[in-house]
Amino acid sequence: MDWELVQKIRGLYFSGKAQIDNYWQSQEVLEAYHETLAQRILWKWQEVFRLLKREGLDRYFTEVESVLDWGCGTGVAVESLLEVLPSRNSLSQVFLYDRSPISMAFARNRLKAKHESVGFVDGKSPAAMSLVSHVLSEMNPSQIKTCLSDIAGSQVILWLEPGTKDCSQKLSMVRQQLMAQYRVLAPCTHQRTCPFSLGDDDWCHFFAEPPSFIFQSSYWREFSDRLNIDLHTLPLSFLFMIKKEMETAVQLDEEDGIRCIGPIRKHKAYSEVVGCDAEGLCNIRFLKSRHKAKLKQMKKDSFALLTESSVKS
Ligand SMILES: C[S@@+](CC[C@H](N)C(=O)[O-])C[C@H]1O[C@@H](n2cnc3c(N)ncnc32)[C@H](O)[C@@H]1O
Fold first, then answer.
1. Does 3 have pLDDT greater than 70?
2. 3-248: which CATH number, 3.90.79.10, 3.40.50.11190, 3.40.50.150, 3.40.190.170?
3. Which of the listed residues 36, 108, 138 should we mutate to test ligand 1's pocket, taking the one with most ligand atoms within 8 A of CB?
């Protein structure tokens, strides 16, 4: 691996230059990104799809016929969707859109080799489902507007961003703009204004579980050392929305539950987590002496959904 190249790409993301430059200048840059930073994004997508399946929300996209991956890069968003679709699925067309023509070609060639029955097309077109991944830090307000209008025809939108405060807050704004036409089904358990958009110090984010093999891998150890990235931490923010008109066709679940947000904060006698529901944000405390089993379970589940009664008990 050309680690200097990977360091250079990462440096671009931190410098803010990624907003201005099309940094996909060669096949080598795309390959270096794909084998390193994009894999971490893939693991986040896999975690979000696990959650959607667990909460029965995958029923909104298992029969999808067309998908748009907006800002596709090397195509890991679609790759992870293809992993979770049933083997006999209806997906026939995938639109891979990016400002960089060579990235669209890279993603198409890579995905085509694995999924011969799917038609991969470079460019954007209205599709039943839109996937958007890790683009908000690179776009100005007018580019975000273009993105929103490109995906607004979709029945289902799944949008994943790094779990930084800045990207999470931008995603909250995206949520607000889409709410007129869409119903948000995850991570939110309600359709009210996002409480994090009301000036809270905290922000909506979660942590994906990295695959265990990386902790035995010299390749990933070197990645971690060279880029100074903690392999244990995979923060993310996401949004899963369906068009309001779909409500007539499907049975929607009751608005219910308190979603646990961010890390569990440990104190001497108790642990605490931020919860979000229709009433806004709350701090939920778990006494070490009384809630041992619940805490153990919560540590394994970054997206825990609690009921009112379980919080009070
Ligand atoms: C950090 S990469 C993420 C790539 C991919 N979605 C992923 O999750 O690995 C951001 C991508 O957004 C693309 N991008 C940035 N601004 C864009 C714009 N205004 N229109 C289209 N694509 C854009 C970049 O070219 C790049 O491929």
1. yes
2. 3.40.50.150
3. 138
